[in-house]
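Risk register update: the risk of archive-format incompatibility is retired. Evidence:
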Amino acid sequence: MVPVLAQYMQANPEVEIDLSTTDKVLDFVDNGLEAAIRFGTIDLPNMRVDSLQPYHLILCASPEYLSVRPSLRSLTDLVEHECIAFGHLPGSEWWTPRPSWRLRKTPGADFVVETPIVSRLKIDSAAGIRRACLQGMGIALLPKIAVEEDIVAGRICPVLEPFWPSPRAVSLIYRKDRRRSPRLESFVRFVIEMFGLKSTPHLTPLQK
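Archived output:
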């Protein structure tokens, strides 16, 4: 989302944005929110919910890391590897007492399971995890859109593809008020044009 905000703000110079990136579920009223993008199934009767393109996570590592570590053929092989975990805060739906990833238990399975991992490094941003992955610090579970260009350039290699989690639903949420401000209306139109189900996927990588 962040890399494409420049395009929106250039087209709408009168708009000010206060962006919060957190994996906690925030209350719209208590936190003064006008719009939010959330993962998973959403059931908010008093809010408008528009579906966006699904979110794909992939397992990957640098060629340098893979060249000196044991081969990867199944999830059980992960215990022999360094994994770069996301540093979720307590209270997040993704927080667990021990580092783990939600992956398919068997190739092509319709459900995912908590898969324990060995992680000496935890980072609370996808951009930071990507940079650590590029430095050969371990295996990462990252948004596909964040490493698309790295894969094409050979800087990062996909691994254990049959076990990648299923795509997650993503939704844009905003109030149902009939008198929404023109600024909010412009933001909603922009997000739907860029990331809606009928739009072309935008493979804008995270900043290096």
